[in-house]
Design brief:
Layout (H helix, E strand, L loop, with lengths): L24 H26 L5 H20 L7 H25 L5 H13 L2 H4 L15 H24 L9
Keywords: Membrane, Transmembrane, Transmembrane helix
């Protein structure tokens, strides 16, 4: 018995899939590169805004537009970066950027309105152990012995390495392999 088949794609039913033409592989690779570049522009713009923590609500639509463009390119049969690699890479970058902003606020701008909302409000609500004795000393922010030095070291090394690792992951580089 032949069961009816359904076109599960959204949009027009006559959506054409990229087929090899006279140009062949070169045209396909050029179209794939253009589609990847276009999606990355939207994804990078969204990631930059989301990474600031305060402008994240404006960055989310840009990020989702980039995801949609990448998904559309995959559906059209173009050779673009896998969606899982893209999401993991950009989310590593976003997480490192948000951590950098938060820790930089704690190091330098701990008495600003933004820090009082993001750090004190979060600390009072969720992280009571961190909030205890916060902003009590002259240096401001977290005042545990050696904690400021650790924060500066983390901002300058660990978070920048995480951003570099996210970029390398997006480029699909093999850094830790021998040969």
């Amino acid at each position: 018995m032949n069961m009816p088949t359904f076109n599960l794609r959204r949009g027009s039913s006559g959506a054409e899939v990229a087929r090899p033409s006279a140009g062949g592989l070169d045209e396909h690779l050029d179209a794939s590169h253009r589609a990847q570049r276009q999606a990355d522009k939207w994804l990078i713009s969204g990631s930059l805004l989301i990474g600031t923590a305060t402008l994240g609500i404006f960055g989310l639509p840009l990020f989702l537009r980039g995801v949609w463009l990448l998904r559309k390119a995959q559906r059209d049969g173009l050779s673009v970066r896998p969606m899982l690699v893209t999401l993991i890479g950009y989310l590593v970058i976003i997480d490192a950027a948000i951590n950098t902003v938060g820790w930089a606020l704690d190091v330098a701008a701990n008495h600003t309105i933004l820090a009082r909302i993001l750090l004190n409000g979060w600390g009072a609500m969720f992280d009571a152990g961190y909030f205890w004795h916060y902003n009590e000393l002259w240096i401001g922010g977290a005042a545990g012995p050696g904690e400021k030095a650790m924060e500066v070291g983390m901002i300058l090394t660990v978070f920048t390495m995480r951003i570099a690792a996210g970029i390398g992951f997006l480029q699909m580089k093999r850094w830790a392999t021998s040969g």
